[in-house]
Amino acid sequence: MRTSFSNPFYEVDRVRQALRGPVPSVSPCFLENDELDWDGIADNIEFLIASGAGTLLLTYGDSLLSILTDEENDALTRFVAGRAGHRAMVVGCGRKWPLKQSLQFARHCRDCGADVVIPFAPDWAQHADPELLVEYYRAVGAVMPVMLLSNPMNGRGIPLSVMETLSAQDGIVAAKDDAPEPYGRRLGSVIRDKFAFLSGGTAENFLQTAPYGADGYLSVFMRAFPQVSHRFWEAWENGDTRECVRLIDTYEVSFFRFCAENHIHFSACIHGMTELAGVCSRRIRMPYSTMTDGQMELLRAYLTGLGLMQ
User: Fold this and answer.
1) Could you report how far apart the first and last alpha carbons of the chain are, in Å?
2) What residues contact residue 252 under an 8 Å CB cut-off, 6+ apart?
3) How many CB atoms lie within 10 A of CB 169?
4) Phi-psi region of 101 (alpha: psi -120 to 50; beta: other; left: phi over 0)
5) Sheet arrangement for strand 216-218
6) Residues 101-149: tens digit of each pLDDT
7) 1 CB-side CA count, 13 A
8) pTM given for the model
9) Which three-class secondary structure string do you get for the chain?
10) Angle formed at CA 226 by CA 263 and CA 72, multiple of 5 degrees
């Protein structure tokens, strides 16, 4: 059960409202010496808030936590929360930790002003026991409001029995779906009346899960060209699913095709878009790839063809 700690984001409706629409992840950029570029991260945050983001999401994949140290993750979470200054809901994210360290990080999130935490449960060889996962998430939920990440588990979603057992009384306020379909649809059927529901990845995924209760989605374009995401959301709210599909085909499908045809990782390409949009540097720490100057020229031509650049 939750503690008496006063955090308004224990209220599911408040979290649901913050997640409504296209949601951006916050992804760090790096200097030439591979240190975190704090000025670039600050510019990124200001851009996202000015673009109408109700949530600033730190998540294991998009936020590149896999190439940060634990200390850097602590510092990034503190920086994002401080810079946001309660202008948007801030979601911190743990790494693959046992309970003790996840609790330490939840307390860190609470103390530095983040609003919600994602505990990233380990699951080597699918060893995580469903009943013990319930205990794990309840323990973290007693410290901070929790967003469950559906797919930390080496390709399997969190067992739906876990989702069925947990409730808002356990401090669980949201779930973010990253598992392969049809898991997201099954997840929505289980949680839509209990928690906020963020569809991961793309507007296309959202279009599949929205009938099952998805409130918003993790957007590819919010970090660089938010007008694309806002046009999709306006079409969705107007009930124009044909326009939603047209926008998905025009922007998202073509973006991933561009990445595949030019052998560029999609994450590197999104970072390239942030540089071309004047938000922050494209540089990413090794061993992950950073777009070359030649690849950036190809990206510029692609975006110009879409009318997003001149």
Assistant:
1) 54
2) 202, 203, 204, 220
3) 12
4) alpha
5) 21-23, 216-218, 196-199, 172-177, 146-149, 116-120, 89-96, 55-57
6) 999 999 999 999 999 999 988 888 788 899 999 999 999 999 999 999 8
7) 1
8) 0.94
9) CCCCCCCHHHCHHHHHHHHCEEECECCCCECCCCCECHHHHHHHHHHHHHCCCCEEECCCCCCCHHHCCHHHHHHHHHHHHHHHCCCCEEEEEEEECCHHHHHHHHHHHHHHCCCEEEEECCCHHHCCCHHHHHHHHHHHHCCCCEEEECCCECCECCCHHHHHHCCHHHCEEEEEECCCCCHHHHHHHHHCCCCEEEECCCHHHHHHHHHHCCCEEECCCCCCCHHHHHHHHHHHHCCCHHHHHHHHHHHHHHHHHHHHHCCCCHHHHHHHHHHHCCCCCCCCCCCCCCCCHHHHHHHHHHHHHCCCCC
10) 70
- Residue type for 31, please? L
Written as six digits, the tokens of 111 are: 């103390």
Joined together, the tokens standing for residue 211 give 């009938």
